[in-house]
Amino acid sequence: VTELHPFDRRFRDKREVWEDAMRCLLPMFWEEGWEYHGKYFDFPLRNVIPKPRQRPHPPLWVACSQLETIEMAGRRGLGALGFQFVSADAAQAWVHAYYNAYTKRLDPLGPYATNPNIAVVSQFMCADTDEEAQARADGSTFFQFALRFYNEHGPVVPGTTSLWDEYLGWKASAAGRKAQSGGLIGSPATIRERLHRFAESGVDQVILLNQAGRNRHEHICEALALFAEHVMPEFHAMEPEHQAWKQAVLSGKVELAEIDTEPFNLLSLQAVKQK
């Protein structure tokens, strides 16, 4: 709300505006001359340059801060970029929802190249022991806390709240301690175990978020090196099997069960609750 209203945009219209923008902008990637006259955008005939060197164009993704956007991404033929799921069951449910939407209800917003992929972002810090990794990732949960704080309280009057003090209190709570030990934070063995849960659910890609908190550059480099040496090779070797499964799903040879996502349809961490 606070991001959209100053630009005279209503929160309830943002999906419709976004879809209109997609229809307006994407043909500029390949059309030599393009004009668009829609509900929210009016663009005169122009040849927009430079055009992408990649053909037909770079893969298209949409950020899914709201879980239900994952199904929409599949229906529109876009890659889904989401936060880490709360459980392996939730991951499987949303993977099924995504690929069923893509294979059964595909309705793209234009003649673009579709990008059937689902990726999740996870906090990351790898060290020799779980305890060392958690210590090095100290403060990385502030981002997660801030999203939850604003989801619960909405916009606050500037100067009335110390967000850092609120964070320190939450960090010492059971929820804060659980968050600190979650994600892909731990030893190679711990991270390997958690990544297997992603793999078993059918997630295509996992994005490692380690530029958060008070971590140090050398710790980030050490974590990536440790991960590359002791974790990545096993999952790299599994990729052909995953791609074979994925192609079978896309071709219809494998049909995924329609799993009810409602038990896993948590409120967006970024959505402001209506009081």
Describe the structure in your own words.
The chain is an alpha/beta fold and 275 residues long. Residues 267-275 have low confidence and may be disordered. The protein has 2 domains: 1-58, no CATH class; 59-253, Luciferase-like domain (TIM Barrel), CATH 3.20.20. Strand 4, helix 3 and strand 5 (118-126) form a beta-alpha-beta unit. Helix 3 (88-104) runs parallel beside helix 8 (188-201). It has helices at residues 14-25, 68-76, 88-104, 130-136, 142-153, 163-171, 174-180, 188-201, 217-230, 232-251; strands spanning 34-37, 42-46, 61-64, 79-83, 118-126, 184-186, 205-209. The chain is built from 10 helices and 7 strands. The strands form 2 sheets. Strands 3, 4, 5, 6 and 7 form a 5-stranded parallel sheet that branches. Strands 1-2 form a two-stranded antiparallel sheet.
Topology diagram in text:
Layout: H1 14-25, E1 34-37, E2 42-46, E3 61-64, H2 68-76, E4 79-83, H3 88-104, E5 118-126, H4 130-136, H5 142-153, H6 163-171, H7 174-180, E6 184-186, H8 188-201, E7 205-209, H9 217-230, H10 232-251
Number of domains: 2
What gyration radius follows from the Cα positions, in whole Å?
Answer: 21 Å
Q: What's the shape?
A: globular
Helical percent range? 40-55%
Would you identify the regions where 5 or more consecutive residues have pLDDT less than 50? 267-275
Question: Architecture of the largest domain, CATH level 2?
Answer: Alpha-Beta Barrel
Structural class, from helix and strand content? alpha/beta
Order of helices and strands: HEEEHEHEHHHHEHEHH
The CATH homologous superfamily of the largest domain is named Luciferase-like domain
The largest sheet, given as strand count, sense and whether it forms a barrel, is:
5 strands, parallel
Looking at the structure, the CATH topology of the largest domain is: TIM Barrel
End-to-end distance: 13 Å
The first-level CATH class name of the largest domain: Alpha Beta
Count every beta strand, where a strand is a DSSP E run of 2 or more residues.
7
Look at the structure and give the mean pLDDT: 89
> Helical region count?
10
Strand content: 5-15%
